[in-house]
What we know:
Blueprint: E1 4-10, E2 16-17, E3 33-39, H1 77-83, E4 92-97, H2 103-114, E5 120-124, H3 129-138, E6 147-150, H4 154-164, E7 168-172, H5 189-206, E8 209-215, H6 227-231, E9 234-239, E10 246-254, E11 262-268, E12 271-274, H7 278-282, E13 293-298, E14 305-315, E15 323-326, H8 330-344, E16 351-357, H9 369-381, E17 389-391, E18 394-395, E19 401-402, H10 407-416, E20 421-425, E21 438-442, H11 445-454
Parallel strand pairs: 4-8, 4-9, 5-6, 5-7, 7-8, 13-17, 15-16, 17-20, 20-21
Antiparallel strand pairs: 1-2, 1-3, 9-10, 10-11, 11-12, 13-14, 14-16, 18-19
Thymidine-5'-diphosphate binds next to helix 2.
Amino acid sequence: MAKSKTIYSCQSCGAQHPKWTGQCTGCGAWNTLVEEITLSSTATPSRYQGYALGEATITPMADITLHPETRLHTGVNELDRVLGGGIVPGSVILIGGDPGIGKSTLLLQTVSYLSQHTKVIYITGEESLQQVTLRARRLGLPEENLLLLADTHVEHILKLVQQQKPHILVIDSIQTMHTDLLQSAPGGVGQVRESAAQLVNFAKQTNTALFLVGHVTKEGALAGPRVLEHMVDCVLYFEGEQDSRYRVIRAVKNRFGAVNELGIFAMTDKGLREVSNPSAIFLSRYPNPVPGSVIMASNEGNRPLLVEVQALVDQSHLGNPRRVCVGLESSRLVMLLAVLHRHAGIATYDQDVFANVVGGVRITETGADLALLLAILSSLRNRPIPHNTIIFGEVGLAGEIRPVPNGQERLREAAKHGFKIAIVPHANAPKSHLFDMTIYPVQTLQEAVEHLKNVNVTA
Length: 459
Ligand code: TYD
Ligand code: MG
């Protein structure tokens, strides 16, 4: 191994220190020093060999031949979907999520299927081989060809893996890995980044597909460096609430497919199962309509999905009334309440407002604006909105209702599930009578509020 030495560099100002200190003397920030390796000018460590000077040449684009892209199917359609149609050989996929959400379960199910056709090595740094095997047997997974390794030492792992030449490698999890290049403890930012860099470099040089499991901190970022996200080709996040059965995988970065694509699963006693008709599961069907509940047609991840948005508006006894969102963006809620006051004359400054998306789904698109505002209004007035009503649309600061992408698909999904009334942006309303629904196209928030008065609960 070529000579390298470690330095400590500040993650906020970039100042370099020969020793670790609690406070950066450059910018005064606390706890920002991270161990890094510097390369001596005479030698290049092996992990950088792929990029060594003198190898690259300038080439006209026309001379570059592409190999037909052969994707490996994971046997799990919803996972293939978020990956953009399967695993691209040599790609690096980071799977993030809270502990216990099902990352290991999903990967074990996937690799045991893949191992029937390709060579796969599953490397666990968290569980013993017995624990992994116990889980696989309990789930009744095929196990004949699956290779396992319980290790956390990157150099050792790479030595063993080089001999085996697998097509797919799984590291569960990257936070448990450590490398000899740095002296700091496993789990630290420096260790995670250097271990990942070595593994990614190996994957690229040998055209091995690599899955990295990463834990998420309380703040929701991948523990360790955000730089992990820059190193990899795909970043998938596992979402869902611990007490809900449903799990959503979202692609937040994908070099080989669409981002924001969703895969939906249910956690059962036989592991993760795909959900083929997701709209049906996120709707809670009450016997009678309740105030504050609105069904919206969202278009998360380019797939139409019906979800229930709930709001509870309650008299506040605080100087600063509470605005709490689960599954929606809090800053957007505050903005929408201001629009409601200014353009519809409905004040909530003395009310606590709570908003929730049922089933642990997270809605990031603006199509939820109108549904959320009308749910708030329904709770404030204590007037239920009929079961068979679907609502979507973006609300602008001028109180205008703006169109959202894929309006027709949203309406089609709603019609498929038996919805009869729709309140939608004017520009999203179909030109001709396409669906068996009464459609109220609206241009302003005021109009939407008026329509709500006309919608009869018993309709
Ligand atoms: P796991 O995949 O170990 O989570 P992670 O790797 O993301 O930390 O998932 C563990 C959880 O899943 C645990 O709370 C139990 C639950 N589970 C089931 O409900 N059914 C099952 O068949 C399995 C394997 C796990
Ligand atoms: Mg795990």
